[in-house]
Amino acid sequence: MEKFSKLKELIAGVEADADKFYNSGNGAAGTRVRKAMQDLKGLAQEIRTEVTEKKNVK
Q: What is the DSSP letter of 53?
């Protein structure tokens, strides 16, 4: 559950940059959004692995 909370924090943290990129055309904010999405991808994969392991233990 700790990783899921971290995932939510990461999404909340990138929200301002996403707004700057999509609504103001700020290119640097777009770069930060892309990096955050890559971090989200890795974290999501870790969560998937963890869920699969817990599911298969039962």
A: H
Query: Using an 8 Å Cβ cutoff, are 18 and 33 in contact?
Result: yes
How many domains, the chain? 1
Range of the domain at 45: 2-57
In angstroms, the CA 21 to CA 51 distance is 33
Do residues 21 and 57 make contact, with C-beta atoms less than 8 angstroms apart? no
- Residue 42 to residue 58: CA distance in whole angstroms: 25
Strands (DSSP E) found in 3-53: none
* Predicted structure pTM score: 0.81
Quick check: 58 pLDDT over 70? no
